[in-house]
Amino acid sequence: MAHGALSAYVCGMITELGHFALVLAFLVAIVQTVVPLIGAQKRWAGWMALAEPAANAQFALTALSFGALMWAFVVSDFSLQLVWLNSHSAKPMLYKISGTWGNHEGSMLLWVLIVTLFGAMAVWFGKGLPPTLRARVLAVQSAIAVAFFAFILFTSNPFIRLDTPPFDGQDLNPLLQDPGLAFHPPFLYLGYVGLSMAFSFAVAALIEGRVDAAWGRWVRPWTLAAWVFLTIGIALGSWWAYYELGWGGFWFWDPVENASFMPWLLAAALLHSAIVVEKRESLKSWTILLAILAFGFSLIGTFIVRSGLLTSVHAFANDPERGVWILLIMAFFMGGALVLFTLRAGAMEAKGVFGLVSRESALVVNNLLLAVSCFVVFVGTMWPLVAEMFFDRKLSVGPPFFNAAFTPFMIALGLILPIGSVLPWKRASVLRAMRPLRYVFVLAIAIGGLAYAMQTGRGLIGPIGMFLGAWLLMGVVVELIQRTGRGPDRLGRLVRLPRADWGKATAHAGLGVTMAGVAGLTAWTIDDIRVAQFDTPWTVGSYEFTLTDVQEVRGPNYLSTMGFVTLSQDGSVLAELRPERRFYPVAQMPTTEAAIDYNLARDVYVVIGGEQDGGGWTVRVYVKPMTNWIWIGCALMALGGLLSLTDRRFRVGAGAGKRRQQAVPAE
Amino acid sequence: MKRLLLIVLLWATPLMAVQPDEILDDPVLEDRARDLSKGLRCLVCRNESIDESDATLARDLRLLVRERLVAGDSDAEVIDFVVDRYGEFVLLNPTRTGANWLLWAAGPLMLLLAGGMGLVYVRGRAQSAAPGEAPLNDAEKSRLDEILRR
Fold it and tell me: pLDDT value at position A666?
């Protein structure tokens, strides 16, 4: 008993310590916002330098606070209201931990933890930045943290205690008890919040009143990192939806999905326009605007998820009043930044001169397509709200709209990408650039035509996707071969290409793979629904299925009805599939667990339903071609981003080069 | 007892999207029914089509769609029939009537506008004279060189 009381006391102490650290971090953030900003204005070195220890302290305190909350979840301390509402002592450890951010309060704390992490990283890697710029970047970053610390402490405090701790908790939403979803939010947040760094750089540059090649180089790694995290986060979420929601859809154009997709599109645009700033000192004010908007869309995303203003399958922890707070934060940062932008952007005179046909122009078209497609998603997402407020129409905007309005932009993007990617800077000729590409272009068209010939009356999406996939992949190969030039040792030169080139090639190939996968899955899925009797085989496509048994199975915190389905083809058994229907008694919720036989060509996806009155069980079967290409493509895009991120010149830009130079005096 | 409770609970939450007993004998009609269902929203769910939804109301709607198809309605007539009863909210594919033209035209219009601005910008860059030079002072220049050389 005494032992129990002691451990309860220790738990309580840890919780209070976490709460205290959070308040302290808030105060540090206020200081870090004000002091370096004044210091940079007055050129007071000491005041500017304060930003660095402050950023480190802020991160350490927030990490401590987050750690304390996680600890409360791990030991199931139900004296915390949040733990009681979202956890249960019988839950597997992984989901106790992921439960920390599987709710509103905890996820906002994770949000702000990542804001402070990026602030601290700007200190660690930003030694090469001019002191005033560094001070201002850290101050702006800290201002964002201040707003969210206030939001957490005043509206969504995770450290609220209960007077009498209940015996056990109410469990996490069973849909969220899944490894894919355990890591989906942290990656998304790393992406969303990573864009805050681009925003801070943009606002700091506006305050400084200058944007140059070096700025483009400094802002790019942060955007690249954010984009990589967003890519991984979105792919994880999409993969989760695919295997968990039970009908094999991978993308629903749900407001919350769109909320993560819009920053992704803008971050992709920003990545490319920052290249033009870095290499050619053009597109400066546009790049600044994109950096502001990309973070703006991250805030809109947070707002959409947290306010529940738009109905969505994701809206599990929302509250309109908190939405108003986020709206105010958004209005402040976007309004402030855009006012600053209109005042200062005129001074950002472009320097580089380039022809109508050039790499620069191609990147302008890239930005045009990405930004307008983002706008289409935005309008579609917001339209139900607008229509209800202004036209008194209660309507829905669903997948058919987005498929029709958004897809053409992606097709156009895929079509121009390989050409734009090989165009020289400054002045170029499309015909000359097309010369090495013409064979693969014809080949890609032939592949699309073959796909068209092999299908029967299923629309153009499949063949177009095959064409784009082939065109992008082969375009990348041609570009890499071209980069090695002529003469001997081309292989050596290929290997020695800068990491950034390999990153570009990998990411572009990934886009092609994803496009092909999306098109293949969308166009050529076949499905079958039936009442299956035991040991009576049936065929779907070229596959044969047999239901051999159905058993009741008990899991750690659920009960399961498990079907035993044998998948075979041409008489040989390919796999034993175990589709389940689970029931979580604490949360009173059923879930479906599809059984999937994965391979590169297709997924066979089996879902078991209910027992029928007349005997037998409902079974749904899908054969989904090329599904895994979608996620392999996403993984390639993320890998490409990471490769670029490790390119020498970013490490140099981030200050490592300077240190190295000091260690090894001039050659 | 626990088992019984479980059965009752599972009973209360209908199990799957399209049920085998709903499927029409005529495969052509069934295909049309599936296509139509994909464009109709389940009214009690969050952003799911009735083709995907487990809800009882979605099942009722699926049966209604099939009933109308069997009765010989065209696709458009079925849609009108459903919209008359449940309102425009049920359509996942928004109509092109009234203010909705703004929604549908938003993308193309923005592309034209932004494309025009982009073209003006690019032409401006192509025609501008020699670039304005030297906003960098000497110290900055040498620092830039140092960065670029490494």
Answer: 35
Residue in B48, B103, B147 closest to A379 by CB: B103
Question: Tell me: the pLDDT tens digits for A254-291?
Answer: 888 898 999 999 999 999 999 888 888 888 889 999 99
Q: Which tens digit of pLDDT belongs to each residue from B90-130?
A: 899 898 888 899 999 999 999 999 999 988 888 888 776 44
8 A C-beta contact, residue A582 and residue A556? no
Identify the pLDDT of residue A515. 95
Chain B residues with CB inside 8 Å of A391's CB? 98-99
Give the 3-state secondary structure of residue A663. Answer: helix
Contacts for A119-126: CB closer than 8 Å, 24+ residues apart: A119/A32, A119/A55, A119/A58, A119/A59, A119/A145, A120/A55, A120/A56, A120/A58, A120/A59, A122/A55, A122/A197, A122/A200, A123/A51, A123/A52, A123/A55, A123/A56, A125/A654, A125/A655, A125/A656, A126/A218, A126/A654, A126/A655
A553 touches B: beta carbon within 8 Å: no
Distance CA A288, CA A296 (A): 12
Helix ranges (DSSP H) in A391-497: 399-422, 430-434, 438-454, 461-483, 490-495
Report pTM.
0.88
Measure CB to CB from residue A396 to each of B91, B99, B131 and give the nearest one: B91
Q: Which amino acid is at B19?
A: Q
User: Chain A residues with CB inside 8 Å of B52's CB?
Assistant: 247, 249
> What's the CA gap between A183 and A88, in Å, rounded?
19
Q: How far apart, in whole angstroms, are the C-alpha atoms of residue A579 and residue A576?
A: 10
Kindly list the residues from chain A whose CB atom is less than 8 angstroms away from the CB atom of residue B20. Answer: 529-531, 612, 618
